[in-house]
Amino acid sequence: MKAFIIDKYKSKDGGRIGQIPDPEIKADEVLVEAHAAGINLLDSKIRNGEFKLILPYKPPFVLGHDVAGVVTKIGAGVQQFKVGDEVYARPADHRIGTFAEFITIKEADVALKPKKLTMEEAASIPLVGLTAWQALVEKGKLKKGQKIFIQAGSGGVGTFAIQLAKYLGATIATTTSAANTELVKNLGADVVIDYRKDDFEKILQGYDLVLNSQGRNTLEKSLRVLKPGGKLISISGPPNPDFAEEIGAPWFVKLIMRLLSSGVRKKAKRLNVGFSFLFMKANGEQLNEITSLINSGAIIPVVDKVFPFESIQEAITYVESGRAKGKVVIKIK
């Protein structure tokens, strides 16, 4: 089958389209013929070796964390799906590879595709949807009437998180460029800050929750917009000791994560606010919840561009530029 292959980290060619054997299915898996795949900044970071400590992949490997397609075969133990089902998923860590014509995925990580979405729209959802759900619902426990600051509101995670926070009944502040103000307002943002000319720290105060997706400087400023007892959840680092325990990291990785996050944790403690790092996990049940919200009209996908599979390098470069509004998708079938 055709796939986008990484032969080595930080390779000059950035990966190649080539032929690999079709995957073999296990008892608890479904074989999905990929129609479309979402591209995430995480793909670029893995390709460049930035996550080798957390997620070591042995080259050659296939990139890709989002997929929408059709079930073509089921394992002997699979009960929830049948051949012909239209599904979408974010495969589990160490089992990625959606930039290919076929992929096997554990049944527990798959959900039926929202009926009203095209394959390309559905492929844009899993990683950003699960990230937002796990940050706002599972970890942040965001409640009606609370205030949340979502950074980079016009990005992939931001466009989804704003809609989810609005559904949960929160008041939402976000940052974006002036050109994207209308977009984020239409999605549900109440306070929109032009990051190019205004300092959010001087405008926001007394927030219950911050979803941090930016660098260290923005993270430390964000701690100061929280009220005492508020929480900051970062999806861009630094990873903390709790996360190291969660993934069963070896002692030296635990030590590195402790050191990397020590400054931020001290600042958070001094301000009497919480800090945690989130690296989202595959979860079919949560995707089913997200499907319900999409089918009800509470959340709509925001897709910037759809590239043909042959232009995958160009698509990844576009995502790396940071200019995308919402998600970038490749059409495979």
3D structure, described in words:
This protein is an alpha/beta fold and 333 residues long. It has two domains: 155 residues, Quinone Oxidoreductase, Chain A, domain 1 (Alpha-Beta Complex), CATH 3.90.180.10; 150 residues, Rossmann fold. Helix content is 32%, strand content 26%. It has eleven helices and 16 strands. Strands 3, 5, 6, 7, 8, 15 and 16 form a seven-stranded mixed beta sheet that branches. A six-stranded parallel beta sheet has the order 11-10-9-12-13-14, sandwiched between helices. It has a three-stranded antiparallel beta sheet with strand order 2-1-4, with no helix packed on it.
Instruction: Provide the CATH superfamily of the largest domain.
Output: Medium-chain alcohol dehydrogenases, catalytic domain
The value of Rg in angstroms is 20 Å
Count of distinct strands: 16
- SS summary, helix count: 11
Oligomer: single chain
> What separation lies between the terminal Cα atoms?
12 Å
**Main sheet?**
7 strands, mixed
Please state roughly what percent of the residues sit in beta strands, choosing from under 5%, 5-15%, 15-25%, 25-35%, 35-45% or over 45%: 25-35%
In CATH terms, what is the architecture of the largest domain? Alpha-Beta Complex
As a percent range, the share of helical residues equals: 25-40%
